[in-house]
């Protein structure tokens, strides 16, 4: 988790007297409001400073490992997770961030969730999910030179007549 979508989740846990169910399976880093020029917590303005200070406080209170600005492995959550072996094949990974799905490249089932879902996962280590719908897409013809599968997928996602 990171400093932007976690404060409300921790506030919810606190309000209901709930602990983080498995703090050893949870980690946090500061990555959304962090300066690329300095490790100064004040470098990106008042709101950024408050969010990062809240993350420090919440991780201490709830026993969650924090890769703060001074930690040698602090970085973008979706980069450092795989680098540090937090992301492994077969795992289910969620984070309050739309880029979480990138962990799928490492064989994990990974998706972004909302802030209220972050609270629920922290409290229960579960997340209610409906069965995903199946969609068949057929691409006919031959791709022009230089066109990759990624280009086709991105173009398909842009043509909204499929849904």
Automatic annotation (TrEMBL):
Cleaved signal peptide residues: none
Describe the location of the Aconitase/3-isopropylmalate dehydratase large subunit alpha/beta/alpha domain by residue ranges.
1-156
Q: Which InterPro entries match?
A: Acnase/IPM_dHydase_lsu_aba_1/3, Acoase/IPM_deHydtase_lsu_aba, Aconitase_4Fe-4S_dom, IPM_dehydratase_rel_enz
User: What domain of life does the UniProt record list for this protein's source?
Assistant: Bacteria
Concerning SUPFAM superfamilies, the annotation shows: Aconitase iron-sulfur domain (SSF53732)
Describe its function.
Answer: Catalyzes the isomerization between 2-isopropylmalate and 3-isopropylmalate, via the formation of 2-isopropylmaleate.
Recorded protein name is: 3-isopropylmalate dehydratase
């Amino acid at each position: 988790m990171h400093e932007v979508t976690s404060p409300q989740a921790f506030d919810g846990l606190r309000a209901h007297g709930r602990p983080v169910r498995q703090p050893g399976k949870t980690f946090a880093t500061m990555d959304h409001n962090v300066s690329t020029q300095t490790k100064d917590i004040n470098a990106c303005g008042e709101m950024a400073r408050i969010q990062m200070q809240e993350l420090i406080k919440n991780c201490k209170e709830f026993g969650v490992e924090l890769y703060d600005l001074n930690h040698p492995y602090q970085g973008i959550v979706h980069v450092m997770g795989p680098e540090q072996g937090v992301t492994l094949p077969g795992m289910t990974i969620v984070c309050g961030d739309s880029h979480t799905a990138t962990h799928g490249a490492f064989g994990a089932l990974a998706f972004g969730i909302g802030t209220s879902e972050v609270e629920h996962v922290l409290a229960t280590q579960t997340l209610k999910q409906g069965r995903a719908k199946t969609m068949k897409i057929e691409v006919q013809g031959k791709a022009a030179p230089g066109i990759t599968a990624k280009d086709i997928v991105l173009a398909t996602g842009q043509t909204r007549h499929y849904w």
